[in-house]
Amino acid sequence: MDKIKIAIIGLGNCASSLIQGIYYYKDKQPEDAIGLMHWDIGGYNPGDIEVVAAFDIDKRKVGKDINEAIFAKPNCTQVFCKDIPETGVKVSMGKVLDGVAPHMEDYPDDYTFIVSDEEESDVVQILKDSKAEVLLNYLPVGSEKAARFYAQCALDAGVAYINNMPVFIVSDNEWASKFEEKGIPIVGDDIKAQIGATITHRTLANLFKERGVKLDRTYQLNTGGNTDFLNMLNRNRLDSKKESKTEAVQSILAERLEPENIHIGPSDYVNWQKDNKICFLRMEGRTFGDVPMNIELRLSVEDSPNSAGCVIDAIRCCKLALERGIGGQLTSISAYTMKHPPEQFVDEKAYEMVNEFIEGKRER
């Protein structure tokens, strides 16, 4: 089968984990391929993905082959596949817009972005010339203008779009209709992790509901040491992120909580944690006889490989949609892999829907 040709916006930790994963699983067999939700999707395995274009704004990455750029500072995720051959794909200079928060300048170079002085590339032309089929958005949280700029580039180039960050494009009907009119599939918004804070919180919230426990209040606090957490120290960039994470949990509840009784969002940046994310979660409720109970949980995960496990399925589902001539929102894979999809479903239902889509029993 032909390779699935992808382009990536932002060669940060998440892109590094994804690209490492493509090579890590290349020579494996299903029985020893640990860490995948699906080995085969429509005949495509993880190793059947090829990066044909990449965009970044950091001078330590722009102009470098992607096999070098994904290990450049400020990336700090775990290296689980270091021997990646030269690809011949050089990182192109992207468009900055609001992709770099002003406060990032106040931190040491090893932890922050250093904007390249290279001339901005013609993104649409590069997408066309590379014959990219799917464009992945890994911009920092709060990059509202930049995310919409690249979404328009995908439209202009006729390329499928996977929006892995919390700017509402796929779940925005106006944007979705543009992609549907052109017959271009889209997946989003805001990537979940395989086993992360959101999916764990949703699972417990659903457990409360199914077991008849009244949830009275809950919080989810997260700390980490990657550029994502450093970027989110600017609280002005967090509106869509908080909405995305909060709605992912609220949508599961039998009865929505009042805003004062639910707090979900980033908490702090701890640089020595690097790409390790720690979640502190508390849920307070009442069981039989109105008797109070609570759960406290501490979750520790390597953040970027955790998201790559979902993105690698989203890419292959996009490819199936392209082959089938399906444009617009891909409801099933969005609900399964994203925090703020066009339509929320409980995770068990979303998993069932994705399998039906893969098997051709469901259009979207």
List keywords for this structure.
364 residues, alpha/beta, Rossmann fold, Dihydrodipicolinate Reductase, domain 2, seven-stranded parallel β-sheet, four-stranded mixed β-sheet, globular
What do you see in this structure?
This protein has 364 residues and is an alpha/beta fold. The chain folds into 2 domains: 4-192 and 305-358, Rossmann fold; 197-303, Dihydrodipicolinate Reductase, domain 2. 33% of the residues lie in helices and 20% in strands. The protein contains 11 helices and 11 strands. The strands form 2 sheets. The protein has a 7-stranded parallel sheet with strand order 3-2-1-4-5-6-11, sandwiched between helices. A 4-stranded mixed sheet has the order 8-7-9-10. Strand 2, helix 2 (66-69) and strand 3 (91-93) form a beta-alpha-beta unit. Helix 6 (197-210) runs parallel beside helix 8. The chain is globular, with a radius of gyration of 20 Å. The model has no long low-confidence stretch (mean pLDDT 96).
- What is the CATH superfamily label of the largest domain? NAD(P)-binding Rossmann-like Domain
What is the fold-level CATH name, i.e. the topology of the largest domain? Rossmann fold
**End-to-end C-alpha gap:** 23 Å
Query: Any idea of the CATH class of the largest domain?
Result: Alpha Beta
Number of domains: 2
- DSSP, total strands: 11
Strand order of the largest sheet: 3-2-1-4-5-6-11
Q: Biggest sheet, in brief?
A: 7 strands, parallel
Q: Summarize the amount of helix as a percent range.
A: 25-40%
Mean pLDDT value: 96
Oligomer classification: single chain
Question: Structural class, judged by helices and strands?
Answer: alpha/beta
Number of DSSP helices? Answer: 11
